[in-house]
Amino acid sequence: MREALQGERLPCAVVDLDAVDRNVDRLRALLAGKTLRVASKSLRHMGLIRRILRRGGAEFQGLMCFTVPEATALRREGFDDLLVAYPTLQHAALAELAEQGGRVSVVVDCAEHVRALGRAGREAGRSLGAVIELDVSYRRGPLHLGARRSPVRSPEQALGLAHLIRDQEGVELLGLMGYEGHVAGVPDASSFAPALNPFKRLMKSVAQPDVARLRLETVQALRRDGFELPLVNGGGTGSLHLTVAEEVVTEVSAGSGFVCSHLFSNFADLHLEPAAWFACEVVRRSDPGMVTCLGGGYVASGEPGWDKVPVPVSPAGLSYVGMEGAGEVQTPLTGADASLELGQSVLFRHAKAGELAERFNEYLLVREGRVVAREPTYRGQGHCFL
Questions:
Q1: Cα–Cα nearest to 11, from 235, 242, 368, 345
Q2: Contact 84, 106 (CB under 8 A)
Q3: pLDDT by residue (tens digit) across 187-235?
Q4: b/e burial code for range 172-201 (CB count within 10 A of at least 16 → b)
Q5: Whole-prediction pTM value?
Q6: How many CA atoms lie within 13 A of 172 on its CB side?
């Protein structure tokens, strides 16, 4: 990959399309009769989304978007069957989405969300789809494991919200979503904190049955009351192999696994290959065995820690200087031998998949070891959705 980037302007971001194809095939092989909804947040690149949907074939259906404005932009690009995972009450954004038409639904978890969707739907002369988000976090007394998102935590609460949707003109209930982030998003074979791996695996083995039980009971309660629920969404890249076993789930979601950012190389039951990197130029050699790259401080969101920092992967053997880490203007690295010369590149893997696209206007796309295309990211198209 470093040879393929010789002569390219640095820093740059590069994606190996052959590796993406193999990751698509690996994830598709896990589906067990379910369909997969591609999480656009983890790609943020129209060209990659199209390639993944095409490679996935009939088993890959629809996109999970992370904001209403992103869904609106994707509709303009010709994408359909969109599920917006993060709700909004901004009327202008919802009105624009409603006016576009197409198959689109928005996650809701409270009366305010439902009323906002209903208003936008009525003004557009149509019904917007609503998908209730069920909180499937693990809760025992003061212990909470999982994303803090929805207040809907029981079949009874979901049923109450479903009745509100049924009584609201301009909105219709399409389904249920429950994201088990404490399973799908927790690396359990981590090289950053290996002592915690057994405890993480134990937590997952205890938590996942509770997720499945709550999802089942909620779907059963809604269907008994006459709600059809054509869409029941669950999972993520890190839990896909578990979620597909649930009979009531109609589809699963995945995004990060297609390019396999470095956090997703730290799951015990996930076997994907890296497909995205960024490259920075070596511009200084301050001390023996050390080099300094220009830029590189693309640290991921979430709980702060070394696992959120990019990992230098090529040449092998490089590591950070603890007092500096990955910096906005410079990134010093130790472990460099004399063969790494000034002007050459160092390849890094980002911790998270989609956030890499926020740093670059384009991705260089590689097949069989050579750059075959240059295509814009969301940022390169002038989009900034958050």
A1: 345
A2: yes
A3: 888 888 899 889 888 888 888 999 999 999 999 999 999 999 999 999 9
A4: bbbbbbbbbbbbbbbbbebebeeeebeebe
A5: 0.94
A6: 12
